[in-house]
Amino acid sequence: MADIGSQFNYYEETLDINSYILNYLSMNDCFCPTGDLETSRGIIEALGGTAAMATIGVGATALSNWRKHGIPRLRWADVMDLAVTRGVEGITTAVLRTACANDAKPRATAASGTAASEAPTT
Fold first, then answer.
1. Are residues 25 and 8 in the same domain?
2. Residue 92 falls inside a structural domain
């Protein structure tokens, strides 16, 4: 049977390793899974979501609109700079242009299979 001192050392070492891992992950944001880059929502998630976008001065309400309607062209440079800072590769003007075009496409509703813009209103 192991003495209590050796068990304490084991747990202390485990905590040190866990702290190291958590610190490493928080400093290396590129570890986060990336989005699909096909839509503005995917780009925003690839960059780190709401908290990351707040670093370039985008509030939650504006960000919600960006997710739905696309990232405004005037903010593309900020988004690309953020991508470089966070180590997210592949976010270019061409990708942003495509994502915004995809955001503008009408989406099918689950119940009827028709585009949301064509769905009847009551």
1. yes
2. yes
| Tokens at 70, concatenated | 């696309």
pLDDT single digits (tens) 41-78: 999 999 999 899 999 999 989 998 999 899 999 999 99
Q: Are the CB atoms for 71 and 104 separated by under 8 Å?
A: no
Q: Taking a C-beta distance cutoff of 8 angstroms, is the pair 89, 29 a contact?
A: no
Candidates 53, 49, 38, 31; CA nearest to 101 is 38
99, 42 contact by CB (below 8 A): yes
DSSP E strands in the chain: the ranges are none
- Rounded CA-CA distance 62/19 in Å is 35
Domain contains 118: no
Q: Are residues 67 and 16 in the same domain?
A: no
Does 54 lie in the same domain as 3?
A: no
**Dist CA 73 CA 79 (whole Å):** 10
The CA distance from 70 to 104, in Å, is 7
Question: How many whole angstroms from its chain centre is CA 6?
Answer: 43
